[in-house]
Write a structure and sequence with these properties.
heterodimer, A: Immunoglobulin-like, five-stranded mixed beta sheet, 21 strands, Secreted protein (chain A), signal (chain A), Cupredoxin (chain A), membrane (chain B), transmembrane helix (chain B)
């Protein structure tokens, strides 16, 4: 009955830009890679861990049984990690690599400089092996690994040795904290475009379940001109609506929908669901 | 305007800052006791007999047959317009002007129009016109019919007012075409049946909109002197003083006050939570809330009039004697609660009626501070008018020695209503 003005998908251009940049980084990384690609290994061919003669195999391991393979600092593989909370479940992890290429089709082969895969660790415990720059880390996996917030990514060669520089594995960390949509300090590569939207001034998390709204409807003071982000999860298909601003979003059952807008008009506005007609909260904009 | 928010009026006034409310409450208290000590000690208002006649030409124009016919035609056209839009238009209050015409232009618009020009709805009421036309066809005298029982007074109007405010504030989907058509059909059926039985005088007692408009018109500077039928300019106090003390007057005023109060607190998140989580269901819970608000207003009034009777001893039925003094307080509530709705949704509805598709609401006339000031001023001014009206009535009714003591319960009642009205603007 009421018209819907859907918000244009602002996320798509950002993702495209990131993909292009990542691809560019990969291309440049590959061309800058100094190792000579002398052999090619078919997938599944088995090799000893100490296979290949790239770099220098150290006796120390990475803490989980994989020996380190030291290479010169110059031209060595490098990685940075960025995480951001997924709107639905878990985290999106982005690995930005330099002098490195993901080579899932030759895993298990000999170590070639600048090639291989990445591994994720949560508080030092192995979490997953990653064959690309983006990885979705579900909450269930975080829970299954015993929880924690310290996410680390390391780069590994095809023979499962860990790339290392100056005796330390090539690694980067980020922190899985709800508010830190930004990469952990020091891990963000400078010049990397920010893939997140500007941080909202007000974030409201609301759950509707069995016709009950939690937290119970209240008033939220919002400064005029501030950004408001509503994150609403309903247990049935519904529609979210912000009166006055006339912002609407679909609420698929059981999934969190996010609606972000700028509160540029003063007044008292109601946020409600249209199907079930429940008031979720009132925004007091002044 | 929680219920209306589903259809009309998507922006609410900001809650009042306590500073404004305290300032208002303090002024109200101060004025009340000042009035007690300083105002006249012999009644000054002469009600119906007061007023300065308007120029004869104006009166001739106002009373001219073409004017009256034009007004009737206008009312009938507007009524048809609304019904046709409800029947044929889209069932979307943002595209169909009919819901806005009923809830904003008629219900809220009657307030300023009646205040300026008097009881206009009598002249425009399409149901009256339909009744008149039917009587002409049947060659009957429209005024003819069984006399209404005197005890009935304004009670049917009070019931009608309660029904309409229920529709506006409680009904699940007040702005939907089905709901409105159902209400309008029922309203028309009851009114026309009553008028067929009792003659056109029925509307004066039973049409909620006529009685509502008539009560507010008591505060209009324009009035008609019953003795000689002259249109006069008069002080609103005299108009108020001339309010007939019909049975049901108290009930009507209590419905006006109680429903507007309910409109205020039904906005607060705590009440919405109560309604949303009530095991009775939302509509039942909200209905109880509305009835409780009216009952609370009425109980306070009954307690007050009991106290007046105890103190004065002489007045046997103080209940209706002071009801007129509550009209300005109800008006203050109405202005405070509906000003923004009227100035934003009123023009939108008119634009829609002229064919605009979902026009944007106009920029607000007043900033947040302006609206808050207006709200407090309306409530405090209503309070002051009410206090003065009640003072004059009590010096007339009470023996001189008891006039001050006799109006104390009234003062307390009015302060309660006013502080209550202000606190409803804070929540």
């Amino acid at each position: 009955m009421r018209r819907l003005r859907r918000r244009p998908g602002a996320a798509r251009p950002v993702v495209t830009a990131v993909t292009v940049l990542t691809a560019a980084a990969l291309v440049f990384g590959a061309s800058a890679c100094g190792g000579r690609a002398t052999t090619h290994h078919k997938p599944g061919t088995s090799h000893e861990q100490a296979d290949g003669d790239t770099g220098r195999l150290l006796t120390t391991d990475d803490g989980s049984g994989n020996r380190l393979r030291e290479v010169d600092a110059e031209g060595a593989p490098a990685v940075t990690v960025a995480v951001r909370r997924d709107s639905e479940d878990g985290w999106n992890v982005q690995l930005s690599v330099r002098n490195f290429r993901f080579t899932p089709d030759s895993v298990g082969g000999a170590a070639l400089l600048g090639r291989g895969h990445a591994r994720l660790f949560l508080d030092g415990r192995p979490l997953a092996r990653v064959y690309g720059s983006w990885y979705h880390l579900p909450d269930s996996l975080v829970r299954g690994a015993g929880g924690g917030t310290g996410l680390t990514a390391g780069l590994y060669a095809d023979d499962h040795t860990a790339w290392a520089v100056n005796g330390a594995p090539v690694r980067a960390g980020a922190s899985l904290v709800a508010s830190s949509a930004k990469p952990a300090p020091g891990t963000a590569r400078s010049g990397q475009p920010r893939s997140e939207e500007p941080r909202p001034d007000t974030v409201l998390e609301i759950t509707v379940s069995g016709g009950k709204v939690s937290p119970a409807p209240g008033r939220t003071e919002v400064e005029k001109g501030g950004t408001v982000r509503l994150r609403v999860r309903s247990d049935r298909d519904d529609e979210l609506h912000v009166h006055g601003y006339d912002k609407a979003a679909r609420l698929p059952a059981g999934r969190t929908a996010t609606l972000t807008f700028t509160a540029d008009r003063g007044g008292l506005f109601e946020v409600e669901t249209h199907g079930s007609g429940l008031l979720l909260t009132q925004l007091v904009v002044r | 305007m929680t219920a209306l928010a589903h259809g009309i009026g998507s922006q609410h006034d900001l809650p009042l800052s306590p500073f404004y409310a305290f300032a208002g409450a303090f002024t109200a208290l101060f004025v009340s006791f000042l009035a007690l000590g300083l105002l006249w000690s012999a009644s000054r208002f002469c009600g119906d007999r007061a007023g300065r006649p308007v120029p004869a030409a104006v009166q001739r124009l106002a009373d001219a047959r073409p004017t009256r016919t034009a007004l009737r035609a206008l009312g009938l056209a507007a009524g048809l317009f609304v019904v046709l839009h409800l029947l044929l238009g889209p069932d979307d209050p943002e595209r169909n002007p009919a819901p806005g015409a009923v809830y904003v232009l008629l219900w809220v618009g009657l307030v300023p129009v009646s205040l300026l020009l008097g009881p206009v709805w009598r002249l425009v009421n399409p149901l009256r016109t339909v009744h008149l036309a039917a009587c002409r066809l049947l060659r009957r005298d429209p005024g003819e019919g069984r006399p209404l029982p005197a005890r009935l007074g304004l009670w049917p109007a009070a019931a009608g007012l309660l029904a309409f405010t229920w529709l506006e504030l409680v009904a699940p989907d007040p702005a939907s075409a089905t709901t409105l058509l159902l209400f309008l059909t029922l309203h028309a059926a009851v009114q026309l049946a009553g008028a067929a039985r009792h003659g056109a005088g029925w509307f004066d007692h039973a049409d909620a909109f006529e009685v509502y408009s008539g009560l507010l018109a008591r505060l209009s500077p324009l009035g008609r002197r019953p003795a000689d039928g002259r249109l006069v300019l008069r002080s609103p106090f005299n108009g108020l003083d001339a309010t007939p003390q019909s049975p049901g007057l108290v009930a009507t005023v209590c419905v006006m006050l109680g429903s507007t109060a309910y409109d205020g607190f039904s906005d607060s998140p705590s009440w919405i939570t109560t309604v949303q989580t009530s095991p009775l269901g939302r509509t039942a819970a909200a209905t109880l809330g509305l009835l409780a608000a009216v009952a609370l207003v009425a109980t306070l009034y009954a307690l007050c009039s009991g106290a007046v009777r105890l103190i004065s001893g002489r007045i046997r039925h103080p209940l209706p004697s002071f009801a007129h003094a509550l009209v300005p307080i109800a008006l203050g509530y109405l202005v405070a609660h509906y000003f923004t709705l009227f100035v934003t949704e009123g023009p939108r509805t008119v634009l829609m009626a002229f064919g605009a598709d979902d026009p944007a609401p106009p920029d607000p006339l007043l900033g947040p501070g302006g609206v808050a000031t207006l709200q407090v001023l309306a409530i405090v001014l209503g309070h002051v008018l009410g206090v003065v009206a009640a003072h004059d009535r009590s010096v007339r009714l009470f023996p001189p020695g008891r006039a001050v003591a006799g109006q104390l319960p009234l003062l307390i009642l009015m302060i309660t209503y006013t502080v209550g009205g202000l606190s409803l603007l804070i929540v």
